[in-house]
Amino acid sequence: MAAPTVNTGVPSAPGVFTRASSGLVRQVRTDDVMFYGWQQIALGYIIFIVAAWQFYPGASMELATLIATVAGLFIAGCYALLSMVYPRSGGDYVFMSRILHPVAGIALSMSLVFWQLFYTGVNGAFLAKFGIAPMLSSLGVQEHSAGLINAGNFFAGKWGLFIGGLLVIGVFSFVQYRGAGVYFKVQRWASYVTVVSLLVTFVTLALAATGVLDFHHNFDAAAGAGAYDNVIKAAGDTSHPFSLTQTAFYAAWPAFSLWFAVLSVSFGGEVKDGQRSQLRGMTLAIVTMGVAMMLLMFLYRMAFGSAFMLASTEVPPDQFPLNAAPYVNLYTGIAGGNPILTVVNSLWVLSLLFFVGASSLIVSTRSMLAWSLDGMAPRWFSSVSAKFHSPTWALAVSAAIALIWNCLYSFTDSILVLGGFLGQCIPFMGVCLAAVIFPFRRKRDFESSSIAYRWGKVPVISVIGVIAFVCVAFVFYRLLVDANYGANNHLSEVMTIAVTVFALIWYAAFRIYRARQGADIKGQFSEIPVE
Amino acid sequence: MDAATITRAERIPGEATRLVGSAAQQSLVLRITGSVAVHLHCPQHNVFMRVLGRRPFYDIDFWGRDRDHQKIDAFFQAQGYLADPAARGLREWGIKRQIFAHPETGIKIDVFMDALVMAHSIKFADRLELADPCISLADLVLSKLQIHEMTANDLIDLTVLLGEHRIGAEAAGQIDLNRIRDVLCDDWGFWYSADLNLSLLHESVQRPGLDPELAARVRMQIETLRAHLAAAPKSRRWKMRAKVGTRKRWYEKVEEVS
């Protein structure tokens, strides 16, 4: 900054600056953005991602994950670059309402929030089904304890799923009521635990892959002599030649996990060095978890055998020799053969599945705040606690919706794992489209921004947007036509449409209401919202 | 400079002192910091603030305690100050700060709680009773030395402060060397920034135009402080950070409130 001019006395010296007022130091760091991305990605989903492999004969899990990772980086490029222009919390709502149209902003943001809350509710059930249950089953097998195995099966049953959901919703509603700053500190420490546990898992699997730990022998010891070979025999020939098509189709599964790191834009205004932190944090989250996922998939196959993995998920439950679900974390526990190691290896699964619900709550509450600040939602959506200044009503509404989803998942068969992915692909496509047209629709904002890069005459963000859009559109199409994903189940399709219709009505109602109050809606949406 | 700006600037020291007194009557501890504290701490030399071309006051900075944040909020609102919407969300994100503005006088209030968290941090929750109505001299000097991008106003404040008060022992009404030493000898980054700022100050008071007696006194204070800091033992934390040095950024980046 240039040195100021002073009248007399102390002349300005080199290195002297001007400053209008006291600034501040934000508390959320780049690594917090990455850790948040880890929670949204929820590497623990690998449990069912791997279990779904059976539906894609000839697919390479690792290559599919690489495809999803690269696609995720393009999507992250759209989100991160737009957040550099609009560094405000409520991220994608702000992009879409200012670039596409306010109605698109509300409709797509509401869709995202609705389905994010789906996963707040459902992820608690995932914690029980894919985290707690396999850990207890594994311990039960190792300790020859019917009690532990039964406890594992309890958590995989209706009430266990419900309790898991209640735990996630209750704990994180409380933590976030205490303030987002508190939540991010808790998230940071949980991420350190995740790293340590994951490293132990890599080592355990590597030892199993190299024969130091003998999974085949341990499985037979737990399930009966010859059990391992019998499972493979029961499924028949599961080997298939490599298929790039099936690999591409299968890529939607790891994409369901990896792409969600971009939602850190929901708290974009609160991050230190916000402009660069989002790009760095998102990219690091997708790359680190993409690599971790590929490595886990590879090690699982080497440690347990591809044929066994496929066979165990294909055989009917009554032909699986253990009284537990055939998940890879169960096998990791069996391979390790030690209860303490089982618990340590389970920690990253438990932690990541536990925190997904929390990360979704952040998206929901920040979006509601952004709608309210724009006058597109009741003022009480943005009312805050006197003590902690956290958005109490937004949290309460979010928790209530999440609880409904938790009940539906736990006690009915109307919802499947990827049930909420369809509805979330639409806002992804919305942001990608916003990235494509931004340089043309908001020419002045683009030219004066720090992202005004071009390849020749073509804006870089537009190119990134086109590639990202194609990737998301492909997955969206696959979700619509392939029943294996479970995303095109009746309830999901109905709710995707219903939420969009609801949002359109909501927008119309608030627009009329605000116009009657004399608000300048058009002018408001041409500005960046107050934080 | 317009009349309103001059009037506001003249009102500010009195308003700051009044607010501290009113708060005390409600068992609320607030202490004045920043340039207003420099003005109040330096009755003999504060005339140099205007002479040297310092920008007139337009805001008052206070230090308070985080456990009193709701009382602070209620207190300033009762005094006619409105909370700044740009700062409304800070607390939720772990930033202990409140900002207010008076709709009629235009005076802006900035309250830091428990710690000044800027380019470097200064914890002060247990130090508010050391002086009244301002923060202690040592903490005031530290609050200036922690600045990463010094302005001409900051240099003027330090010039006046070091021109009026000697560095020595708190009990003797001086700038408490022990406090400065305890903070800077435990935090290499803060020490480095402080040293850079002291060099900048030393250079700035050497230029022609400044009262020679004042300049000499300030230079002597700087040299005294630097000598003491150089000789003081450093903590293990300080030494380990010193090994990394400036290869890694040694200060926090300070951003705008909105």
Mind explaining what this structure looks like?
The complex is a heterodimer of chains A (531) and B (258). Chain A has 531 residues and is mainly alpha-helical. Chain A has helices spanning 30-41, 46-51, 61-85, 91-99, 102-143, 146-155, 158-177, 180-209, 215-223, 227-235, 244-250, 252-258, 274-304, 306-314, 328-336, 339-373, 392-411, 421-441, 443-447, 460-481, 490-516, 521-524; strands at 454-455, 458-459. The relative contact order of chain A is 0.19. Chain B has 258 residues and is of the alpha/beta class. Chain B is 47% helix and 12% strand. Chain B contains ten helices and nine strands. In chain B, the strands form three sheets. A five-stranded mixed sheet of chain B has the order 1-2-5-4-3. Chain B has a two-stranded antiparallel sheet with strand order 6-7. Chain B has a two-stranded parallel ribbon with strand order 8-9. The two termini of chain B are 26 Å apart. Classes of the chains: A mainly alpha (531), B alpha/beta (258). The A-B interface holds A 1, 3-4, 6-13, 15-19, 21-28, 89, 179-182, 184-185, 270, 272-274, 384, 386-391, 530-531 and B 48, 51-53, 59, 61, 70, 85-86, 88-95, 97, 108, 110, 117-119, 149-152, 155-156, 159, 200, 203-205, 207, 209-210, 252-258.
Write the layout of secondary structure elements.
The complex is a heterodimer of chains A (531) and B (258).
Chain A: H1 30-41, H2 46-51, H3 61-85, H4 91-99, H5 102-143, H6 146-155, H7 158-177, H8 180-209, H9 215-223, H10 227-235, H11 244-250, H12 252-258, H13 274-304, H14 306-314, H15 328-336, H16 339-373, H17 392-411, H18 421-441, H19 443-447, E1 454-455, E2 458-459, H20 460-481, H21 490-516, H22 521-524
Antiparallel strand pairs in A: 1-2
Chain B: H1 3-25, E1 31-33, H2 34-41, H3 47-51, E2 59-64, H4 69-78, E3 82-83, E4 97-101, E5 108-113, E6 115-117, E7 121-123, H5 137-145, H6 152-164, E8 167-168, E9 175-176, H7 177-184, H8 188-204, H9 212-231, H10 236-244
Parallel strand pairs in B: 2-5, 8-9
Antiparallel strand pairs in B: 1-2, 3-4, 4-5, 6-7
Helix pairs in contact in B: 2-5, 2-6, 6-9, 8-9
